[in-house]
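Changelog entry: the 3,4-dihydroxyphenylacetate 2,3-dioxygenase record was regenerated in this release. Current contents:
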Amino acid sequence: MTEPVSAQQPNVIRIAHGIFYVTDLERSKYFYVDLMGLNILHETEGALYLRGNEDREWTLKLELAPEAGVKHLAYRVGTPADLDAMTALLDRQSIPYRWETELDRPKLLRFQDPFGVPVAFYAESVKHQWLLQDYHLHRGAGLQRIDHINIMTPDVEGVMRWYMDNLGFRLSEFTEDDKGRIWAAWIQRRGSVHDLALTNGTGPRLHHFAYWMPDMQSIIRLCDILAGARMPESIERGPGRHGVSNAFFLYIRDPDGHRIELYTSDYVTADPDFEPIRWALDDPRRQTLWGAKTPKSWFEEAAPLEAFKGGWVEAKAGELVGLPVHVI
Ligand SMILES: [Fe+2]
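Regenerated C-alpha cells:
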C-alpha cells in the first residue's frame, strides 16, 4: 500500500494534518473540543493542536489570525530519503520550497503545488499514545481519525495527474462526462478510498477536511449535540449516504465557515486487483443515494488558501464554471 512506486518517487503515506486560521480561538475550542470531541494535544496562547481518538499525532492545528483561511495541508512520507526525493522533484520542476518546523515535526518541506495548493511534507514526527481504547476520555461525537481533504479546483484532471504521476497516488473513483472530461477524482495512498478528493469549482480552495467516525450513530449524535447547543445552523448537509465512496456522511461548518465532513462506512482500495469506479456526470446517485437536495452554499463556498509568498491564493473560475457543479 505504501511502497515507493519507484526509487525516484517519494513514498507518501497519507494525508496527515491541516492548519486552519481561526478568528476566535475560544469559540473554535468550544466547537472542536467541547462539541465535536477532538482532543487537545498541545495548547498555546495562539494555537490549539488537536487529534482524533485514533490519531497518534496532531491532525488539525487551529491558529489565531485576523482572517479565516487555510495555512497549509500536510502529508506524511516514509523516511527522510523521501524528502530528498521530494526536493529533487521540486528542483526538476522549478517549484520553490523552504523548510519550516511545527510542533512534533522538526522538518516540514513547504511549497505550493503547481495548481496553487499550499502543502507540506514531513517524515519525522513525535507519535503519542492513541486514545482509541481510553473510552472514559472520549467526548462529544468522538471523532476518530483524519481521513481526507477535498480541494475545489477548475483543473481537476491536471491536479489529479500531477499527484498520480509524481507522487504515486492511485485513482479510486472519478466522475466523467460523455466527452471524457473528468469533473471529480478521488485519489489515495493509504489504501482507503481517498486521501485527496478533487472537485470542479472555483479554486484552488479547501472545500472540506474530513474525519473518520466510529459509526453512523456517532454522526447522528453530533447532530443532536449541535442542536442541543442551539447551533443547528452549523449543520449544512446530511446526514446521508454518498454514492461515491459509499460513505455515511455529515457536513458541518465551524464558527469561521470551515467545512468539516464526518465520514464513515466506506471501503478499502488496498486490494491489488482494485479497479477505479467510473461515475457518469449525469448520474444523481453519485452525490447521495437517498436523493436529498444539496444546499447552494455547498457548491459556492470554500476556504481560501494562503499563498507560499503570503496573501491568499487567487481562486480562478475555470472554463467549466457556468455548468452545473457537482462535488461530494
Ligand atoms: Fe469528503
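The first helix runs from residue 25 to 36.
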